[in-house]
Protein: Radical SAM protein
Amino acid sequence: MAAHVPELAPVHFLELEITGRCQLRCGHCYADSGPTGSHGTMTTGDWEDLLACAPAAGIATVQFIGGEPTRHPDFERLLTHALAQALKVQVFSNLYRVTDRLWDLLDHPGVTLATSYYSDDPGEHDRITGRGGSHARTLANIRQAVRRGIPLKVAIVRLSDGQRAEQAYAQMQALGVHRLGPIDRMRGVGRGAATIGTGVRELCGQCGNGRAAVASDGEVWMCVMSRFLGSAGNVRTTPLAEILTGRAWQDLLIRVPRRNGAMACNPSSDGNDCAPAETVCEGDALILPTRWEWLIPLAGIG
Structure:
């Protein structure tokens, strides 16, 4: 008997892992990225072609992720091209280095921002990222994003007992970061697999549900965290819309535990009793509203 394909939301959010290069050396990095990482085999033209056809494939929002997406030599060009397709854009950046020119692009009303933060203690944060001074740089740029009114989501990941994750969470609230995901844990993907192992229980259970990811070599995954389950095809040889309706994509969807149906589990509000994963992953639940919608819950706040 054929396995039942779960009823999921059509893919409208596309993660674009445009590079494996990053200034940081985080020991838990799900993408196994770092200073010597590759930009992959997707050319700038390949990415532009993908962005151009994305709306016809049902995509409304793209997330530039990596590695550190701003390390791609044509990042600004790709961001501008995405906006020209009337796509909403989220940039998931470590905020280690943001130039004045880049701030001007991030100020566009179609752009939102996301980052990771680990501790209010500079030494602890820098040990986690493997880069001295990263705490000071990231914190300064978080403050800058808040001052500029750029919608910002901060993901906090607990990697060990005693880590000042709760204090980091409180610090972000005090700074005016109003979009904070629940404190997450390290995932057994990428470098994290060496510590806790890889398996479907490391996933939040929403892989492929309204989302997909494209790797720097063009391979299509259900999300950046589910890469170990394999690819549904490659956008360099097959149109994205065809991949997302193909048999290989359906076969991948079947492999993810969906806990009483695809939408029954709400990882962003559970109480550590939700399988397969207790909370959302770092790259998950970061689809932000438009800036107008963003301001509505803040109305009346003095």
